[in-house]
Design goal:
Shape of chain B: globular
Largest sheet of chain B: 10 strands, mixed
Oligomer: heterodimer
Structural class of chain B: alpha/beta
Number of domains of chain B: 3
CATH topology of the largest domain in chain B: Aldehyde Dehydrogenase, Chain A, domain 1
CATH superfamily of the largest domain in chain B: Aldehyde Dehydrogenase, Chain A, domain 1
CATH class of chain A: Alpha Beta
Structural class of chain A: alpha/beta
Radius of gyration of chain A: 19 Å
Number of helices of chain B: 27
Largest interface: A-B, 42 and 40 residues
Strand order of the largest sheet of chain A: 7-6-5-4-3-2-1-8
Number of strands of chain A: 8
CATH topology of chain A: TIM Barrel
Number of domains of chain A: 1
Number of helices of chain A: 13
Strand order of the largest sheet of chain B: 13-14-15-12-11-16-17-31-25-24
Amino acid sequence: MGEAVVGAAQPVHGRSNRPRNPGMPLAPDWFVGVAVNRPAAERRAATLTARRSIKKEHQAAWQVNAIRCMDLTTLAGDDTEGRVRRLCAKAARPLAPHILAGLGLEPEEVRVGAVCVYPTMVGAAVRALAGTGIPVASVATGFPAGLMPLPLRLAEIRHAVAEGADEIDIVITRAHVLGAEWQALHDEVAAMREACGPARLKVILATGDLRTLTSAWRAAMVAMQAGADFVKTSTGKEGVNATLPVSLAMVRAIRDYAGRSGHAVGFKPAGGMRTAKDALNWQILMKEELGDAWLAPDLFRLGASSMLADIERQLEHFVTGRYAASHRHAPA
Amino acid sequence: MPSVREALSALDYGPSPESESDVRAWLAAHSAGFGHFIDGNFTAPGTPFETRAPATGEVLARVSQGTPGDVAAAVAAARRALPSWSGLSGHDRARHLYALARHVQKRARFLAVLESLDNGKPIRESRDIDIPLVARHFYHHAGWAELVAEEFAGMAPAGVCGQIIPWNFPLLMLSWKVAPALAAGCTVVLKPAEYTPLTALAFAMLAREAGLPAGVLNVVTGDGATGAALVAAPVDKVAFTGSTEVGRAIRRATAGSGKALTLELGGKSPFVVMDDADLDAAVEGVVDAIWFNQGQVCCAGARILVQEGVARAFAARLARRVATLRLGDPLDKSTDIGAIVHPVQLARIEGLVAQGVAEGAVLHRSPCPLPARGSWYPPAFLTGVEPASVLAQEEIFGPVATLTTFRTADEAVELANATRYGLAASVWSENVTVALDLAARIRAGVVWVNATNLFDAGAPFGGWRESGFGREGGRVGMRAYLRPAASGRGGRIETALPPPTAAPAGLAGPGEGIDRTAKLYIGGRQLRPDGGNSYAVAGRGGRLADLVALGNRKDVRNAVEAAHAAQGWAAASGHGRAQVLYYLAENLAARGELFAGRLAALGATRAAAAAEVAAAVRRAFWYAAMADKYDGATHATLTGHVTLTMPEPWGVMGIACPTEAPLLALVSLVLPAVALGNRVVAIPSQTGAPVAADLYQLLDASDVPAGVVNLVTGPREELARTLAGHDDVAAMWYFGPPEGAAMVEAEAAGNLKATWAESRRRDWTGPAGQGRAFLDAACGWKTIWVPYGA
């Protein structure tokens, strides 16, 4: 932290001094009986983005902000240290110099929120990002299914933190939600939070497995009560990943939790978002449902791998007035 | 424009205006003013009036004030076009409607921009809601045009239609009026609202481009005087959407004219939030209800009723949400709240809110700034509004909802129904058992469950009570532009009867058997008339047939109260009502000789009397059969939505019987009404009233519950006037002379009850005496939308 950032009042990447959500004992009355009406949520999600339009300089700014809030991610079986180094280089310099210049921005102003990798790649990412201030996030706890004994999952968290991870993206035991075993879910997440130590905890609900919006809402509330710093939709490996309706349900849970506990918890949609238009849509969701504080990387992350390429093309078009080609940009 | 860096630190939306250049060019090309569209051509501009952009107050165009002469020319053109248009095959008409739908889509953005400029509504709404629904309406009715001959066998087009539409959804209301009319084979003279005439004029140009034959659609612009001229013109049907006040005036103006009439009027629709609702969803529902189209929506959920346990949480969420609405330039794509259509409307909103606040209501308004120019009102809601407040009763027609609490579902229903209106309702509960209970019990033409303001061309829309009568959309809506091909033409006109007198006329009496006293039948009891008098009914050979009770106003009042008390009848199953009607038939057949004898004494031949009784028995069987078969439907509207329509009885109906066929006509009118769950106050044939005394004994013997059928004999015109003017009678059927029909229709304007007034004699023994048309007239329709998704 502490880099001199030209013209920006807020951190341009995810490392934050924001007080953490301390969590609380399980309070079922905060979520039992709450139901999310799916057709209504879908209607809101569909009209939300049709109600707002962002053009020209404003649109460019929102696209840059999406980069700042991006967890640039590689979570593939064929990841290598070389692949991770390439991703980190893109994370530090996500836009080509002529685009940055055309936007009138300095390189320090445009960096991704974090780089997200598997635990065995954390060391490589930490080395590659040294000096950039960009945090490293690691998935853990038997990602993506999480069906490993709890001690092993906790050990995995500790390993990743020891390797230098600043943030840990854990997966929950879906069975706890499907079986309404809320205390078990709370205990599990609280234990993971403890294992994280100083690292920020992002709790992946895997909403595609939970199916209903009501389940997503309730699981998010339990995760926050257990001390989550972020709640996150998906691993990217479920059949359905981040959608606007499920995101709407979760950010409304965040709003309720903030209203009752006084603690702001971040939100990270992940998986399935590929376009610059998606980046705008999810930011509109945050601004409308939670407010401007949730447009900064300490409270909002976009978990994406291919979205950056589309944003870079859109920004080049903004700068040059010509439609862009991805092969002229550095790959992530 | 700010720099990207500045925009990055603010992260606001910035301006995003929709281009208006094409619309401006069109307006500039017509800067000399618009004429009317008559017989396929635009007339030279007449006396102009200005239409302005509500957002700025600037003059957009000069439009012609339609004169009675203009209206006459347009109606004449429509009349000339009628034979060839109605003579086209359904398929050929379908091709025209299809072309209109296509042309609307091809000009979609132009029409959206023009609508937003002229009306002040946000482009998001005109672009995403109004115009797509317009196209959908023409597509749907292209289908009806194709099918009308098969689906509505025996029906003919209503004829030339005069249609008057409001300013809140100008082009959408045009489509709701024009599409079914053209599909049915009617021709149209349309008067758009004076505040918002431009999209109708643009549509007329589209119709020309689409090749619609001359005279089929005519557009005459102007103010209320032009509308009045159209109502008075020789049209066959008048269709009006607008204020209840004007609707009432039209009801009076058309009384006795024989013109068919449908009215879609005001509302004060309830928005019920139960404590198990998804509160965030319900808050968005409010946004889509009262903060849609600046609250200038007849079906807007203007009365929010919240269960006490969640009232504070709900109000807090509502307050947060209202602050995030963006008010401003209607053509900006990020605008939620546009301009109020006219300074007159703005003043009305401000006046009503000020009055409510003076009565103790607390105003919670959005903190959004208002532009310096134009007509604006911030989105708001009011708490502390008691049901007696002016705000809970009067339609505000602005972006202002009232918030009132309730304790139980029963109380929610009571508050929801405590209104002169009955257009729409919105019910929020995650419990389908509770939600559907409320949907069933709230008196409204449309009920949205966990949703609001959903529309589709296939789903009937329209109101109860002072929200008007008639439906638009779907099969029921099509029926409003059709009439029976056979009846209603020919037949002798019923002649006026002198009122009966209590003074003895000295007719020769029968002098045999035991004297009987024919009484009134009210609430299941045989009662002497309030006035303490009887009148003589003459029978065969001018001899005295019987003395019957001479009912008066108070007897009618008592009968209406008794009918209301019998509301359990409406809740009975169709099967249960059928059982009673079958039993009635059984008992009628068993007493056939008695009834035949009475009819003979009244002057019928023996054969005719026997035939009348036999027909009455069959009629009872037929309506018993229909009691559990005349039912609703599910409609193919939007995916993920169950859209139901169901017939609901009017409630308490008044029925004034014709002179002839005293048994059969009465049975033919009363049975369809009670088969569907209505309770009836019937005025039996004034000259055949002795039948009533036999009939009430039959009703007693047949387990017809007390109050379901009430019989008040006496002066038809006086009793009918009392019934027609009664605010707690929901519908009135009248069969009598033209002056009586006119009187009934005019009196009905008071509470805008539905009427069926006919002066031509029917052959009650034939097909004209029985059928679905009677059942159609004995009920209104409720459309219930239930979106689903686990």
